[in-house]
Amino acid sequence: MCGRLFVAPSKAAEALLASFGLANISLPTVNNIAPTQAVPVLFRDEEGTHMGPMRWWLHPHWSPDPPNQRFAMFNARIESLLSSKAYRDPVRYRRAIVPAAAFMEWKNEPEGKQPYYVETNGVLKLAAIWDCWKEELWSCSILTQPALGEFRAIHDRMPVSLSDELAHEWMDPRADVKGLLATVKGESQQLIPRAF
After folding, report:
1. CA pair distance 94, 132, nearest whole angstrom
2. C-alpha distance from residue 9 to each of 102, 122, 126 (Å)
3. How far apart, in whole angstroms, are the C-alpha atoms of residue 93 and residue 73?
4. Less packed terminus of the chain by CB within 10 Å, N or C?
5. Which residues are 158's β-sheet partners?
6. What is the DSSP letter of 161?
7. Is residue 111 within 8 Å of residue 94, measured between CB atoms?
8. Residues 173, 179: contact at Cβ < 8 Å?
9. Is the Cα dihedral 92, 20, 56, 141 positive or negative?
10. 137-146 vs 48-56, strand pairing mode
11. Can you tell me the distance from the alpha carbon of 46 to that of 42, in angstroms, rounded to the nearest whole number?
12. Which among 146, 47, 45, 134 is positioned nearest to 96, based on CA atoms?
């Protein structure tokens, strides 16, 4: 999970951004975003809350190497965030949300891979983390967790997607990160998969 994202403007996305003080900002329409491509990210830094594009494949600020795909870092497992050198600082200090219209997931079938277009009623608020390498590259990873309920029939992993209330808790820089991870683990908006 998940290997493609879809982003689109909507009333729900506008309401989400407005709730973070970003009224008058609309999401672009971008279909079939693949890892390493730019994805819109809602994030907070010392200057406030922003919406901006980031590379969907986290590259740590401390890396001596230029951006690469040596390690698959477009998704981050919630179970190993605090033990990972690459993820532990971002989850403590640089949490974000990727507002998506949908994501694509593939189910292994005897005939081959069956794609599913997965959406929700409104906007998906995907929990994410971000980092900045050499003040040149802003990048992010989307959090994943073991699949819940009926989604297990499609894939063994799924994104961590948040309610409005949990989205604000996730973005709160004062939150205790261990308690926050315990709170959001197992959370999911209602996902609506459609065979594609």
Report:
1. 10
2. 12, 10, 16
3. 18
4. C
5. 145
6. B
7. no
8. no
9. positive
10. parallel
11. 14
12. 45
Reference 59, options 71, 50, 47; nearest CA is: 71
What is the pTM for the complete model shown?
A: 0.96
Q: If DSSP codes are grouped into helix, strand and coil, which group holds residue 146?
A: strand
Task: For CA atoms 190, 162, 142, 11, give the dihedral sign.
Answer: positive
Question: Can you tell me whether residue 132 is helix, strand or coil?
Answer: strand
Write out the two tokens for 42. Answer: 């809602």
pLDDT in tens, 24-79: 899 999 999 999 999 999 999 999 999 999 999 999 999 999 888 888 899 999 99
In the block, residue with structure tokens 């989205």: 167
